[in-house]
């Protein structure tokens, strides 16, 4: 199915093109076609035809000018023609009908009747209607003709005849413009159209009509695009189709697909088979005229929303009445192909006649465009007239016409309603689509907001995000830096607080020393002076920072133990310092060892951190010990005889501590260097090494400062001892 | 550990009233029944949050022995808060409060917030000082009063934090000048570092030398 559908689509597309192409040419074709039909029909007499034409024209103009007036006129025209037609049609009509119905354009009845009876009036009217209208209906006619042609494929002879006929017809009919051109062009156009239509129709024929819905849709679209004319033709076709359906129903060839309308029609047809074909043909034309007018209105409506409709047209799955009619038509067609051998010529004629009718229909709407609604309103009246008039005659065709009229009115009404409903549906669907359409990333919403403050907001958010990231990053770096920051670590080890306390104590002692010196008698002071000077000298130690001379390894534990024992201060032990120093050495060893084992295990930053931590801790403990020494020196001043010795001992402790700091800095730097040599970026370690040395200097500065703070304390102790 | 403010506390009181135990309970949340005699001063620190701000409490735990009085006296200066502790089971510790209070008032800022703490409230059976007496003393001298137990941690947190709240309120009221470190209040490293940049090493030296002067 899919394949066939596609084919149908393709053909339909081609068909669209062809129709569009055909449009410009229409003038040419119309005359041809009309000529064909008229030729066949006109065997009678041209003069009669002319007369009839005049009459019909007048009627038409009346109808167009006055909707109500039309009805009466048309009905009259119908009345007059039907009488004669009916008889003829009854006799010869059946055969033709069958064939015609097969030919799709169902109007076959009329055509047959015309052919056989050659009634002037009818022909004239048709020809008249055709000629004026021709402009609008070009495409329609072409389609019709083509379809007919297809049906007639088998009998090409008829085609040739029809083709040749145009000239005569044109002569006969009113159109006396450029006969030659029309002839030539018309023939060419016909051929083109026929081929196009064949393409269009062939798939439909091949398939089951219903399956070809997509094609129809496309066709319909093309029709819309082309304008109201084509739609008119379609509607006319529909009407014709229905008629044909009725005809086929006689033959029992019609399929079950026929819908209510068809059923009605068929019922009516069955009741009175003898009905005069052209009578209802007239009625049909009138009805179709009304229908077209309404459809024009609908088209205008639709065109107003064309943009919306076009986009969503494909989504309109519900087949329009037109489409349904087409389906029926297609169904009717299939039997035609089978049956239509004998009546080829007649069918072709009938088709042409049908075309004529269509032309009439198309004409009228144009004229009556403004009065469309009036027409619609007038239709019921028409129906009534038909009933009365035909009822008196007892013609089934009248009933048919009436029913047709009803149907047409219904259909047009439906079309109108459905058209507007379609519009609403389209709008609603579009809205729904927009609303429900998945919008990944809210692109559309963003676009909508684009005009507003979206960029500002987004930029603000981005900025805030960046700032936040930056801040968190900075905090991270901060925390990291603090972990390797000597001052911070020194504070965390409470070195700062101890130093602060020592300062406070020292300051207080200094004040006390001054006051004591002022309070003590002169002789006492002179006796104490050597001690005080000796203590002060002991505290004047060389600057331990700037020379690396004595960086040889030393036994820190032993030295400290000795010195602290010399202090003779209860409660002060070097154990804390010694433990710290041991841990530091172990850590340093670990760093070096891990370096040897796996190169990049401990990166430079880690080693640097360990080094700084070691320095900070050692410094903090040193300051703490100094503070304690100071406090206890003040407390236990009685135990010690010589404060000068104590001062010298403390100085030695200070030297040992500073030496240790120096050694640690060197060792950590060496470790860093070796680690850096193994890493890919040796230069990156330089600032770290520099930092180690810098903090080592800071460390020894803190230690010496703490040491210096002890001077007033020892002085006070010396003074107070006395 | 960044903080907005640093408050310096001192803990004073007779020896054996549980000053060091209170500090240990507050900083380490543990109780040590037998504690070494404090020599001079020991230190503790803990972060607390008041009004959404991180505040570092730096607590100077002084020796209570009479021999250290002259030394500990020098540590009072620059304290924003003081915990004056007595032992509810020993009336003499309560009787010495006046002396301690005089020392504190004399050697520290007049704005210093003093919290009177009757410790060892877990030893109700051996209570020697009624709670009302403590309250009366606090009312009389404009102190905050609280009975705590370093052993059970009862009211320990509250004692430290309420003091901090009082100090913070005084800062909000403008009583304390946070730029004057003699009040025992320092701005956190964040604020100071933002001005001083990365010259931390120099900063350390500066503070020290500044202290010397």
Automatic annotation (TrEMBL), chain A:
* Start-end of Polar residues biased regions: 334-348
Determine the domain of life of the protein's source.
Eukaryota
Q: What is this protein called?
A: Uncharacterized protein
Acidic residues composition-biased segments: 1-16, 349-359
Query: Does the record's keyword annotation contain Phosphoprotein?
Result: yes
Q: Which organism is it from?
A: Owenia fusiformis
List, as start-end ranges, the regions of compositional bias called Low complexity.
74-86
InterPro entries from the xrefs? DUF719 (IPR007998)
Q: Which PANTHER family match?
A: FI01459P
Question: Basic residues compositional bias: what residue ranges?
Answer: 92-106
Q: What keywords is this UniProt entry annotated with? A: Phosphoprotein
Q: Where is this region: Disordered?
A: 1-235, 325-390, 438-459
| Sequence ranges of Basic and acidic residues compositional bias | 22-39, 107-136, 146-156, 166-193, 204-214, 222-235, 360-387
Family assignment from sequence similarity:
Belongs to the FAM114 family.
Give yes or no: UniProt keyword Phosphoprotein. Answer: yes
From TrEMBL, chain B:
Q: Which Pfam families match?
A: Ras
Q: Which domain of life is it from?
A: Eukaryota
Q: How does it sit in the membrane?
A: Lipid-anchor
Query: Which GO BP terms sit in this record?
Result: protein transport; vesicle-mediated transport
Q: List all Polar residues biased stretches.
A: 182-195
- Is DNA-binding one of the keywords? no
Gene3D superfamilies per record: P-loop containing nucleotide triphosphate hydrolases
Keyword line? ER-Golgi transport, Golgi apparatus, GTP-binding, Lipoprotein, Membrane, Nucleotide-binding, Prenylation, Protein transport, Transport
| Gly residues bias spans | 199-213
The primary location reported for this protein is membrane
Localization per record: Endomembrane system; Golgi apparatus
* Stretches for region Disordered: 182-213
Which is an annotated GO molecular function term of this record?
GTPase activity
Which Gene Ontology cellular-component terms appear in the entry? Golgi apparatus
Which NCBIfam families does this chain map to?
Answer: small_GTP
Annotated family: Belongs to the small GTPase superfamily. Rab family.
Protein's UniProt name: Uncharacterized protein
Q: Which organism is it from?
A: Owenia fusiformis (Polychaete worm)
